[in-house]
Amino acid sequence: MVAMKGLRDCSGLAVLCFVLAAGWETVSGQIRYSIAEEIQKGSFVGNLAKDLELDLQGLSDRGVKITTEGRKQYFDLNFKSGHLYISERVDREEICGRSSKCLLRLEVLVQQQQMKLHEVEIEITDINDNAPRFQVEQIEIGESTDTGTRFLLPDARDPDVETNSLQGYHLSDNKHFSLDVQKAADGARYAELVLEKALDREEQAVHNLLLTATDGGDPVRSGTAHIRVIVEDANDNPPVFSQPLYKASVLENVPRGSVLVTVNATDRDEGINSEVTYSFRKITEKASQIFLLDPKSGALRAVGEVDFEESPKYEMEVQAQDGRGLSARSKVLLLVLDVNDNAPEIALTSLAHSVEEGARPGTVIAVFNAQDPDSGQNGEVTCSIPSSLPLRLQKSFDNYYSLVTDRALDREQVSEYNVTITATDRGNPPLSTITALSLKILDKNDNPPTFTQTSYTGYITENNPIGASILSLEASDPDWGENARVTYSLLLPLLPRGEGSESPVSSSISIHSESGAVYALRSFDYEQLRELRFQVQAQDGGSPPLSTNVSVTLWILDQNDNSPEILYPASRSDGSTGVELAPRSSEPGYLVTKVVAVDADSGQNAWLSYQLLKATEPGLFRVGLQSGEIRTARSVLDKDALKQSLVVLVKDNGQPPLSASVSVTVVLADSLPQILSELSSLSASAAAAAGGGGGAEPQPGLTLYLVIAVASVSGLFFSFLLGLLALRLRRWRNSPLLESGASGNFSGVPVSQFVGIDGVRAFLHSYSQEASLTAGSRKSQILFPVVSCTNTLTAQQPQEKPAPPLRCDDSNISNGGGSGDGYAAAAGGDGFVPVSTGASPPPSISTPGASSGLTDYFSLNFTSGTDIKIGLPKHFSKLLKPELEKEAQARHLQTEGETKQQLKQLIREFEMSMNGTGAANPPPPNSPPSDQQPGDGNALSDEPQNPPPTDQQPGDKAQTLNSRWPD
Fold it and tell me: Which residue segment(s) compose the domain that 650 sits in?
């Protein structure tokens, strides 16, 4: 066999290259090899790698693909040597039939650095592997046959071609017969037996002839047929066919047994000489297995499967012979009509089972070939995939397709695609073939972890055990494998400054790197740290890793772990407390002193309650449950002892509650002589008791200390009384209310009846004072002003600087209409006039000598439309109301600012008239009056209002305006 490398002849060959978007390339020119048929399997065909200039080291099963026409794969490639060799028996007669040239085309797909497609033609040369064969070996000739009559001898069949095919016939010697070989128009040779000498049946009834057919091969092959000539009676008319060519069209899926065509021949003879029988004269072996000719009727039937793909037409020659051996011949041409009985076939050439997400569009996933053995539209194939897939089909050339990506793939949306490729022909009805491919998307670390919440809040009670679990954080990563493995870690800011030190978060809490659980590394103290803010980072295991941070707030919850701390009365180092004085003439409800305590806890744990635990006289004193005020519960009796010892218990509202107690000593006396007298009698009694008991000496030191203390207190008391009395008398004399003019109705009414009101914020307890003096009386009653304070102070609440009583400034006069806002007070003498604006009535007012029911509220209507409400005691409003209304109508106010300024001017004029001065001297804004102390009851408070029940009695001289409930 000879290997031939095809020359590049651009004029003789069509250009086969289509440049593909996926990087394919077809190579022009052809490579042709020539082999003989019937060579052994494994025989060498050609050095394909060398001829195609392929790299042997790069050859692999995926590197080169060979596709052969037809259904058999006759050739294979040795990837080590690059040689093309025979893999199946090659029979030229089976592949090409009687064609003069037999070519097999191979398509070689090279997938090394660049995809290339080569066409290789393999010429199959014929060898003389078939001897001529005869089908019929007997003829009958009538004795009356004339000399020169020709008898067509049976043809010999030789499937070889050219010189290897049938070349001639030879007849054995016989005096009656000679052989004449004729050549048909198509080049085929056929033999005729010529009667040279008349036959005499009586002389010889049978003549045996030997007919030999030879081909032109080397060596020459031959076939013989024993021709038996039977001499019969005379039959001078051969059969005649109705037409020389019978042509019919038949569907390839015709049912078996169907009559395709019927041939007909007639004989004018009679009897047995006219009986015609039909037979095939010339037919291929394959056709003889498909078709059957009825010898009597001449009907040609299909007994096998008629397949257009096997052969689109069948040509055969039929013979009609009468009873005496005369015959005629005719041709039958069957055209097989194609039926769409073959679905397209998909052959995968290259396939990638996976692709990385984010791969650029146009990445090749698979290469395949789609063919349909049908013809015409039945063989036209179109391929498609579902439109929902992010892929597309790209036709390369001929019947080759590439499956490529149409857009970027995201594994988090779809991790695997089941691709169905549908190949459909254009037949009616169309047939289709479906091939399923599985494409996995490989993960890429393109997603950071995501927390389930935007921020986290945790709670833990103080005094927690070390290692206590606080909360769990959870983050997820939609990636896969190591890219989705999330680890947690703390970001390390510093804790808020505490006692002069800073502590990192890592020393207070820890987080489990795998589960995200947060644990406490120490026991927290609510009183030192209430809130802890930090950040947690969730990081995946990708390369490079991606991370996300989240803010976490940890709240420390309070526990009742602090007992109340008593601030007043303070205990000395020896455990004793100071002595409180109370007149024996005190009425029930007289304020003796107040126990002040705080609790370092917060909330309910800091709500304090007070109760009298022990007392010398249990019924004489009572303690305010919420205020801690010690008051007289009844009048002091003569039998009551001078010295009263009380034990007050302070208890918080925690669970369980904690408590503290304090001892208070109260001395009951109206004057210094009484105190000294009582002390003397007590000392004498004590001395007598001591003498009777053993003659102990009296203790003069205690008496001396008591005398000095009482004298000091009395001196301070009388000094304060004289100064207060002088101040009151001076103001009373200078007051225009004492004159008999228009203000004569105010005679005897102290100016102190005007009490300041703060209507914007919560009110504190306020205590007023009143002096009732009678000349020469020892029962004069003096009520001292008491500094108001809250019931409970918490250690966490900073001591705010108390705001002064509301003065005549812009911040205290407004036209608001909301409840609680817009109340103002104007300075006037010793007190304040309650003033309100808007539609809501002012809060209830408690003033010395006038209850809330004795206050008259009225409106000042300015010409500008401003409506300002003012509250005055009723015995003052009769005089002041007409004057204020007159002034309001006389003033033409246009703006809110003018209204405020004019209202302040009215109040200042009223103040000057009350003080008898020529000009008003209001204190500076936001500053308390000279006698206002920080912590007084009229101070503003920003605390929310939640007043507890009060223990104040109707007879109390200290009037409660409002109280403050602990937070």
Answer: 565-685
